[in-house]
Amino acid sequence: MKVKHGWVFSHEEIYRNVWKEEPIDCANAVMCCISQLRKKLKVDSRNWNYIRTVRGVGYKFQPLSGE
Q: What pLDDT was estimated at residue 30?
């Protein structure tokens, strides 16, 4: 899955691209994986995340400034 800075991806788009299956009630599986990714990508104690939640839509990748 190619991630473009600032693009928002729905739960369904993420599921389809990661698991290569049609999404059926996929929100919980995606949320769990996003949670694990956030823990692994945590930069420092300020709790800044590369992955932002866009409420009601999905997630977007937000790199640190200068990247």
A: 93
